[in-house]
Design goal:
Elements lengths: L2 H11 L4 E4 L6 H9 L5 E4 L3 H15 L3 E6 L2 H15 L4 E7 L15 H5 L5 E4 L6 H13 L5 E7 H5 L27 H13 L3 E5 L1 H5 L3 H11 L3 E3 L14 E4 L7 H9 L2 E5 L21 E6 L13 E4 L2 H10 L10 H20 L10 H11 L4 E5 L4 H8 L8 E3 L10 H11 L4 E7 H7 L2 H7 L5 E6 L4 H10 L19 H6 L3 E5 L2 H13 L4 E6 L11 H6 L14
Parallel strand pairs: 1-2, 1-3, 3-4, 4-6, 5-6, 7-8, 7-10, 8-9, 10-11, 11-12, 13-14, 13-15, 15-16, 16-18, 17-18
Helix pairs in contact: 1-2, 3-4, 3-16, 10-12, 11-13, 14-15, 14-21
Bound molecules: thiamine diphosphate (TPP) and magnesium ion (MG).
Length: 581
């Protein structure tokens, strides 16, 4: 057995079902093994390494298993960087295999030579270069352990191709795998009992507590534990964008989202009026705290912060009750600590929040422009709410889809998820990501939401989608511009000529024709009725579909982005000032 075959056998024993990749001059050994080793993972041929990594990222977010990608040396490795960085910062377990140049060429100006470990060190959790074929099993195990243990993240292995051709010695080498590292988190870090006791004592005293669920809750698979804890303690839950979906949207205690992008006024009200806030799996960074203004500095509200990474605790706020541990393990420990006779009574607090929540949704429903053309983005989401199959996985890119889907998309089941790669918000994620989503959950319909700027960066993967017949429904927000940036320029412009916008416009095209080239069922939609019937047809079709929707430009009417509304003198939380919807 050569090194490549041993690698593929180990991937298979780790339960890797699919490897996303792009071939190059250095991938021949690996491809030979992927083709011939029995039980080898399926190889998904991608059209761009960026996409391969985005597929692996989304696969991992939705399956909880490490997403594996492979790329060639040099340019291929460089193109893989964005997805490694996003996965790592979002604590998503991703493993990148770089098929590197043979060792004999190192330092000799070999075509595509690049210091892989130096390139990836700042953006990955762990990077290692294979020094000899006998070390391969060990570094593969380390890669899975680093990806899944502690705070999950991205790991990169540089594999000189000559070593993958070498025979694996039989003596003193074991190809065993560590079964716990097949999923993340591989080791659930339990909290300290004293920390739980202190936080629970404060929570029992609190009359107006609130839980803020961040991305860590979804990473740790803590939805059921969170729902059970919130119900037992009668504590309302708000989420950040990456925590969305942690408690189903129609639950009485699932209030809405906080943060700049798509915030719900009633969720912010709850945050402002709480006397104790439990942040779980939330770093309390710039987005979730609106540049550290919410909670207001010096506010008289006590804070519990739960994070897997103790170094992330109290980094931006003074924390009254720090708890280090896995989100699910902490919630289970807190639930265990509740006296069986305890009866929570926070009815008036929960009622107050829900009254505001109801008022918001009634107002929003009364303001949806159902006739407008170009179509309003909120109409797109509202219509999706009525037609999405249950469950479904929705993946959204930066630009118009983000604030509108975070604010208006509603899931009424426990399994559906909204995935937004929020740490870097790189455009061009959603189209490849629906492919990763499909392999993570083949029985769940993946839906991609993205703008025309984003499409320009990932259109090549329409071929992959078609070739693999992935039954994704792609919804293209076509506004002929980098709308988000155009809007930002308008918000910040101080009366320059040409309304202050600069170098953000495209020509207008019918992009359904592009999908058509690949044999993807496509629709061009300019009116609300056309959108509604296209959605019905798309969800009725079991192959890939592309809906090209001519939407109102985000630059023409402000989206629900708190800081932008504030900058233009609109009160972001006043319902009567909601421009529309
Ligand atoms: C790779 C990358 N480059 C640049 C940006 C900055 N950026 C954020 S939103 C945006 C405009 C998005 O345009 P489009 O996809 O058409 O969506 P729209 O805002 O028009 O709805 C840009 C350029 C980014 N997020 N990612
Ligand atoms: Mg656009």
């Amino acid at each position: 057995m050569n090194g490549a075959a041993a690698l593929v056998k180990m991937l298979s024993d780790y339960g890797v079902e699919v490897v996303f990749g792009v071939p190059g001059d250095t991938n021949v050994a690996l491809y030979g093994a992927l083709k011939s080793v029995e039980g080898a993972p399926r190889h998904v041929l991608c059209r761009d390494e960026r996409s391969a990594l985005f597929m692996a990222d989304c696969y991992a977010r939705l399956s909880g298993k490490p997403g594996v990608a492979e790329v060639p040396s040099g340019a291929g490795a460089m193109y893989a960087l964005p997805g490694v960085a996003e996965a790592n910062k979002s604590s998503v377990p991703v493993i990148l295999l770089v098929n590197d140049i043979p060792r004999a060429g190192v330092g000799r100006g070999t075509l595509t030579e690049l210091p892989i470990s130096e390139l990836f060190r700042p953006v990955a959790k762990h990077v290692e270069t294979l020094p000899s074929v006998a070390k391969l099993p060990e570094i593969v195990r380390r890669a899975f352990r680093h990806a899944t243990a502690g705070c999950p993240g991205a790991t990169v292995l540089a594999l000189p191709e000559d070593l993958l051709y070498e025979e694996m010695p039989e003596e003193n080498v074991s190809l065993h795998v560590e079964p716990q590292c097949r999923v993340a988190p591989s080791y659930r870090v339990r909290p300290q009992p004293e920390a739980i006791a202190a936080a629970m004592a404060a929570l029992l005293e609190s009359r107006k507590p609130l839980i803020v669920a961040g991305g860590g809750v979804n990473r740790s698979g803590a939805s059921a534990a969170l729902t059970a804890f919130a119900e037992r303690m009668h504590v309302p839950v708000v989420t950040t964008i990456t925590g969305q979906g942690a408690v189903r949207d129609d639950h009485r205690l699932s209030i809405g989202i906080i943060g700049d992008n798509g915030f719900h006024p009633h969720a912010l009200w709850a945050q402002e009026n709480a006397d104790l806030i439990v942040y779980i799996g939330c770093r309390m960074g710039s987005v979730a705290t609106m540049n550290w203004q919410r909670p207001a500095p010096g506010a008289r509200c006590r804070i519990v912060q739960v994070d897997l990474d103790p170094e992330a605790i109290a980094n931006t706020y003074e924390i009254d009750f720090p708890i280090s541990g896995d989100a699910r393990a902490v919630l289970e420990a807190m639930l265990d600590a509740v006296d069986p006779d305890y009866r929570a009574d926070r009815t008036s607090w929960v009622d107050d929040i829900n009254a505001r929540r109801r008022e918001f949704w009634e107002h929003a429903a009364s303001m949806v422009e159902r006739e407008a053309a170009p179509i309003r983005p909120e109409f797109v989401i509202e219509t999706l709410n009525r037609h999405l199959p249950t469950p479904c996985n929705v993946i959204s890119d930066a630009g118009t889809p983000t604030p509108y889907s975070t604010r208006f998309l509603k899931f009424r089941d426990d399994r559906s998820r909204l995935v937004i790669p929020r740490f870097f918000g790189g455009l061009g994620y959603a189209i490849p990501a629906v492919i990763g989503a499909y392999y993570a959950a083949p029985d769940v319909r993946p839906v991609g939401l993205f703008g025309d700027g984003s499409l320009g960066m990932s259109a090549g993967e329409l071929e992959t989608l078609s070739r693999l017949n992935i039954p994704a429904v792609l919804i293209h927000f076509n506004n002929a511009c980098f709308g988000w940036i155009k809007a930002l320029q308008r918000v910040t412009s101080t009366g320059r000529e040409n309304d202050g916008t600069f170098s953000v416009d495209f020509n207008a095209y019918s992009m359904d024709r592009l999908a058509d080239v690949y044999g993807i069922r496509s629709f061009r939609v300019e009116t609300p009725e056309e959108f509604e019937s296209a959605l019905v047809a798309a969800f009725g079709h079991d192959g890939p579909c592309f809906i090209d929707v001519v939407v109102e430009s985000i630059a023409n009417r402000l989206p629900p982005v708190y800081s932008w509304l504030q900058k233009t003198g609109v009160n972001p939380v006043a319902l009567e000032e909601m421009a529309s919807v």
